[in-house]
TrEMBL record, chain A:
Domain ABC transmembrane type-1 stretches: 66-256
Highest rank taxon of the organism: Bacteria
Protein name: Cellobiose ABC transporter membrane protein
Species the sequence originates in: Actinokineospora diospyrosa
Pfam family, one: BPD_transp_1
Automatic annotation (TrEMBL), chain B:
Cell compartments where the protein resides: Cell membrane
Domain of life of the native organism: Bacteria
Topology in the lipid bilayer: Multi-pass membrane protein
Organism: Actinokineospora diospyrosa
Domain ABC transmembrane type-1: 66-281
Family in the record: Belongs to the binding-protein-dependent transport system permease family.
Annotated protein name in UniProt: Cellobiose ABC transporter membrane protein
Keywords from the UniProt entry: Cell membrane, Membrane, Transmembrane, Transmembrane helix, Transport
Cited PROSITE patterns: ABC_TM1 (PS50928)
TM stretches of this protein: 9-28, 70-91, 98-121, 147-171, 206-223, 260-285
Length: 273, 291
C-alpha cells in the first residue's frame, strides 16, 4: 500500500479533472474579451456574468429553446419511465409464449447504431408529416432498449414472483397487480431511468438538428452550437450560454444524485457483509 | 403455466412499435435506397445496383474519415477503460459524495463540453497552451494538427465517460463475493494477483458491456468532433478534414450534398463494420480475461 496520502492526492486530481472544465467555463463567461487576451489567462471569475446573460437574452432566443428542450425531455422521461417499466415487468414476471425470443430482440436492437440511421429515420418522420414538430423529436425516443433492460433487471430483483402469482390466483387483475405490487417496488430505478432519459434527451444534438427547423423550433443544444458557429467565436458569450443551459440538468442531477448513485452502485448494501 | 392472454404482449408492444418504425424499417429502407441514385429531397433517380458501394470503397475521403474514427476511438477508449478500473478500485471504500463528483461530467451536455474544451484548447489564449508554455512547450494548434486534434477530441470523450464507466465497474466489483478474495489471500496471492484472478473475471460481464457500448459509441462519434472546430467549418472536421469522423462524413454527404443513396450505402458499410468491430472487441476481452 502506497498509503493514504497517495490515494488522497490521486482522488483530489480526479475531482479537479472532473470539475475544472465547468469552473473554467465560469471564469471565461464572467470575463470580457480583453481579460482573456492578456498574456496570463485569468484564473478567477470576474464581474461580467450578468451583463453577458443580458446580451445573450438579446442575441438569441435561448429561453424559448430551453422551453422546447424541457418539453421534449420531460415527455421522453415520462414515456420511458412508463413504457420501459411495464415492458420490464412483463419480461421479468409474466410468462408468455415467445418471451425469451422477444427479449433477445430487445438486446440485439441496442446494437443497431441509431445515429447512422439518421437519414432513413428522417425519411420516416418526413413521410409522417412530422418534420419540425415536437412529435419528430419525441417519438423515436419514447422507449429505449437500455430502459427495458434496466427495468427488467429491477423487477427481477425487487418484485417477488410468488406475490405476483398469489395475487393472480386470488383473482387480482394484472393492472392491479402491477399497480399495487410491482410499481411500488421499482419506483427508485424508474425514477433514475426518468432522470437519465431526461438528461440524454436534453443533451441530444444531432437528431433535433435534423428533425426540427433550427430557425423555428430550436433546442438549447442547437442554439448553443449556432452561437459558436460563424467566423468569430465570442467565447464569454458562448460559455455564458453553456452555463445557463447546463443549470437545469445539473439541478436535476443534484436533486437526484444520491438516488442515482445508490441505484447505479447497487452492490453497496453487500459490502457490509 | 402459460396463460392465453394478450396483456403481456400489449405491455411490451410500445418498444417493438418504436423499434420497428425507427430501427428496423429505416435499416431495410436504407438497404433499398443504397442501391439507387437518390436525392434526399427529390427522391429516386434510378436504380444504381452496387455503384454506391463501389464508389464508396474507392472514396479516399471515406478512408480518411474511417482512419480518424479508429484513431480517436483508440485514443479515447483504451486509456478510459483502464483509468475507470483504477478509479473504481480507489473509490471502493469511499462514500457516495465522491461518486457523485465523478458522475458530474456525464450529465453536462456534449455540446457544452465541446465548447468548453474548444476554449481551453485555443491556440493563442487557451489555458492548456498557457500551462504547457510554462514547461517550454511551443503553442500547439489543437485544431489544425491532425494528431493534436485527435487527442483533443479523445480527451473530451474521456472526460465525459470515465466517471460513468468507473461507477459501473464499482457496482460490479462490489458484487464479487468476498470469499473469493479470502480464498485467494489464503493461497498467498498478492494485491495485483487478486485483482487479476478474482476482480477482473468477477466483473467480466460489465467489462464486456462497457467495451461493446464504447465500440458502438466510438463508431458513431459525431458531436464532439463536429463542434471541436470553432472556426465555422463545422461538419468538415477541420480545414483538411483532419478530424472528420465517418458519422460526420455521412452527415455531410446526406444533409450537405443531399446524396441519400450514397449516404445509405455508407450507413450499411458502417453497420457491418460496427458489428465486426464489436465482435472483435468482445473476442479480445474474452481472450485477455480468462474465466
Amino acid at each position: 500500500m502506497t498509503g493514504r496520502f497517495g490515494r488522497a492526492v490521486v482522488l483530489g486530481l480526479l475531482v479537479l479533472f472532473s470539475l475544472s472544465p465547468l469552473y473554467s467555463a465560469l471564469v471565461v463567461a464572467s470575463r470580457d474579451n480583453a481579460d482573456l487576451a492578456r498574456a496570463t489567462p485569468p484564473l478567477l471569475p470576474g464581474g461580467h456574468l450578468l451583463e453577458h446573460v443580458g446580451e445573450l437574452v438579446e442575441r438569441v432566443d435561448l429561453a424559448q429553446a430551453m422551453v422546447n428542450s424541457a418539453l421534449i425531455a420531460s415527455a421522453v422521461a415520462v414515456a420511458n419511465a412508463v413504457f420501459c417499466t411495464v415492458a420490464g415487468f412483463a419480461f421479468a414476471r409474466l410468462r408468455f409464449r415467445g418471451r425469451e425470443a422477444l427479449f433477445a430482440v430487445v438486446l440485439a436492437s441496442a446494437m443497431v447504431p441509431t445515429q447512422l440511421g439518421i437519414v432513413p429515420v428522417f425519411m420516416v418522420v418526413d413521410a409522417l408529416g412530422w418534420y419540425d414538430t415536437f412529435a419528430a423529436a419525441i417519438v423515436p425516443g419514447l422507449v429505449s432498449a437500455f430502459g427495458v433492460f434496466w427495468m427488467r433487471q429491477a423487477c427481477l430483483e425487487a418484485v417477488c414472483e410468488e406475490l405476483v402469482d398469489a395475487a393472480r390466483v386470488d383473482g387480482c387483475s394484472l393492472a392491479r397487480v402491477y399497480w399495487h405490487v410491482a410499481l411500488p417496488a421499482v419506483r427508485g430505478p424508474a425514477a433514475v431511468l426518468a432522470m437519465l432519459s431526461f438528461a440524454t434527451s436534453w443533451n441530444e444534438f444531432s437528431w433535433p438538428l435534423v428533425a426540427l427547423d433550427p430557425n423555428d423550433t430550436p433546442t438549447a443544444q442547437v442554439v448553443l452550437s449556432r452561437l459558436a458557429g460563424g467566423y468569430y467565436t465570442d467565447y464569454p458569450l458562448v460559455l455564458t450560454g453553456v452555463l445557463v443551459s447546463v443549470v437545469p440538468v445539473l439541478l436535476l442531477f443534484v436533486l437526484f444524485a444520491r438516488k442515482v448513485v445508490a441505484v447505479l452502485a447497487r452492490g453497496a448494501a453487500e459490502t457490509g457483509r | 403455466m402459460v396463460r392465453r392472454t394478450l396483456t403481456p404482449y400489449l405491455l411490451v408492444a410500445p418498444f417493438f412499435v418504436v423499434f420497428g418504425a425507427f430501427g428496423v424499417f429505416p435499416l431495410l429502407r436504407t438497404a433499398w435506397v443504397s442501391t439507387h441514385r437518390w436525392h434526399l429531397i427529390s427522391g429516386d433517380e434510378g436504380f444504381a445496383g452496387l455503384d454506391n458501394f463501389r464508389h464508396l470503397l474507392a472514396d479516399p475521403l471515406f478512408y480518411n474519415a474511417l482512419g480518424n474514427t479508429l484513431s480517436i476511438f483508440l485514443l479515447a477508449t483504451v486509456p478510459q477503460l483502464g483509468l475507470a478500473l483504477g478509479i473504481a478500485a480507489l473509490l471502493a471504500r469511499r462514500g457516495p459524495a465522491w461518486q457523485v463528483l465523478v458522475l458530474v461530467p456525464n450529465v453536462v451536455p456534449v455540446v457544452a463540453v465541446a465548447l468548453v474544451f474548444g476554449q481551453l484548447l485555443g491556440r493563442d489564449y487557451g489555458m492548456v497552451n498557457f500551462l504547457l508554455g510554462h514547461v517550454g512547450v511551443e503553442p500547439i494548434a489543437w485544431q489544425a494538427d491532425r494528431w493534436a486534434a485527435h487527442l483533443g477530441v479523445a480527451v473530451m470523450v474521456m472526460w465525459r465517460w470515465t466517471g460513468y464507466t468507473a461507477l459501473l465497474y464499482l457496482a460490479a466489483m462490489r458484487s464479487v463475493p468476498r470469499e473469493l478474495y479470502e480464498a485467494a489471500e489464503l493461497d498467498g496471492a498478492g494485491a495485483w494477483h487478486r485483482f487479476r484472478v478474482v476482480t477482473l473475471p468477477g466483473i467480466r460481464p460489465t467489462l464486456l458491456f462497457t467495451v461493446v457500448a464504447s465500440a458502438i459509441g466510438g463508431v458513431q462519434m459525431f458531436t464532439e468532433p463536429q463542434l471541436f472546430d470553432g472556426s465555422g467549418l463545422a461538419g468538415a472536421g477541420g480545414s483538411d478534414r483532419q478530424f472528420q469522423t465517418v458519422a460526420m462524413y455521412l452527415y455531410e454527404v446526406g444533409f450537405g450534398r443531399f446524396d441519400a443513396g450514397y449516404a445509405a450505402a455508407m450507413t450499411w458499410v458502417l453497420f457491418v463494420l460496427c458489428a465486426v468491430f464489436t465482435t472483435a472487441a468482445v473476442g479480445l476481452v474474452r481472450r485477455v480475461i480468462s474465466r
